[in-house]
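quick q for whoever's on today - can somebody do inverse folding on this one?? i tried earlier but teh output was garbage lol. tokens:
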């Protein structure tokens, strides 16, 4: 257990314990252990409540995501005619939500904004690379609550992610859409993991509101009482 030390034990006052300030407690120095599943899920739940009910928090998430917006790629080879045809083909496919999104809700541009919103609000979002019946590229999106450990004794699984000895993501487990009690494993090479990754040792991302949650809740409750 780490926290404020003995009074006067260090020349750095920040390392010493003081009766002039509150006790500082931090559970571990290992970043790989400081964000367990319970902590992350509690932060996600509170962040989602704030996003849904507090205008300031919602603006921080949706406002910033809309401000960032989306990008559009263009073919840039020496063959101008090929560039024109390639761009036309991309625009046609990327602009169709039926072709682009497995759930037929988002297109290439709206998906970028939704990815930002999800990563700001929840800390991460998983995109699974799949295809259409004709073999064209298609994407399936899974939010933070849909990434969970499968039923296994494999200790390499941490909070829905299978990691190797160096912490590299090897696979993800997402809920089965027909049976949410089960999880389906997808290799990392078939996914794009998009996250607000704050530290090298963290397995999952953190909501951007994690530093503001208590403060915004306090303000909201004080306003409600008054």
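ok took a stab at it. sequence:
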């Amino acid at each position: 257990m780490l926290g404020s030390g003995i009074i006067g034990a260090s020349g750095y006052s920040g390392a010493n314990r003081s009766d002039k300030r509150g006790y500082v407690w931090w559970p571990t120095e290992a970043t790989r252990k400081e964000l367990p599943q319970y902590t992350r899920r509690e932060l996600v739940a509170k962040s989602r409540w704030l996003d849904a009910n507090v205008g300031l928090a919602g603006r921080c998430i949706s406002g910033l995501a809309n401000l960032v917006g989306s990008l559009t790629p263009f073919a840039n080879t020496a063959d101008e005619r090929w560039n024109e045809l390639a761009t036309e083909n991309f625009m046609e496919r990327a602009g169709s939500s039926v072709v682009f999104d497995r759930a037929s809700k988002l297109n290439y541009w709206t998906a970028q904004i939704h990815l930002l919103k999800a990563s700001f609000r929840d800390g991460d979002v998983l995109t699974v690379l799949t295809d259409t019946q004709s073999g064209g590229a298609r994407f399936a999106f899974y939010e933070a609550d849909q990434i969970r450990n499968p039923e296994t004794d494999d200790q390499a699984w941490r909070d829905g992610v299978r990691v190797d000895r160096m912490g590299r993501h090897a696979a993800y487990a997402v809920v089965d859409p027909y049976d949410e009690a089960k999880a389906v494993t997808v290799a990392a090479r078939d996914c794009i993991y998009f996250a607000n990754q704050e530290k090298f040792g963290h397995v999952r991302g953190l909501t951007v509101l994690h530093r503001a949650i208590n403060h915004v809740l306090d303000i909201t409750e004080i306003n409600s009482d008054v």
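fwiw The longest helix spans residues 37-53. also The first strand starts at residue 2 and ends at 3. so keep that in mind when u check it
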